[in-house]
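Worked example 2:
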Amino acid sequence: MTTIATTKDAMAQAKTRMEKAVEDFRKELAALRTGRASVALLDHIRVDYHGTPMPINQLGALSVPEPTMIIVSPWDPGAVGPIDKAIRTSDLGLNPVSDGKVLRVPIPPLTEERRKDLVKHLHKVLENHRTAVRNIRRDIKEAVEKLEKEKKISEDERKRFLDELDKLTHQETKKLEDLSAAKEKEVLELK
């Protein structure tokens, strides 16, 4: 954490850190499986390729030709086996079909029980990110209160800043909740 010398620095740092938390939440949502195919589903999977763990998207082209299918076209045909194994052993519950050159990864429809589990997981991830935003707020608030104690800012300036900080915190938390609500709707939607 960089040092905070003014309330302007504090607000800039708060915005940056909170936006990073929201962006991280977006990435987590992209990797959350719904009944719809998305190449982002495979983003967190690492393939042991010649002794080096590598992301799938660095080993081949990924495409979604239809809503329930992901196609992985490895640049090296020797990578088909390791990619297949990595997808099968992941926590996604997917079973790729290989023709020796290309992997077809069908996305099965979600069961009602699995949908409910995904929503529970979504709520847990949301709460973790809400907590992260609140922790950022607390850190920045403490830094500004320290500035006031050191007589670098006035009490009125601190109060104005804390009001702004609360507004920012509420804004970023609302973004998280809106993203979560949209994803929950997508997960529960029957196709």
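The chain has four helices and six strands. The chain has two domains: 7-31+111-188, 39-106.
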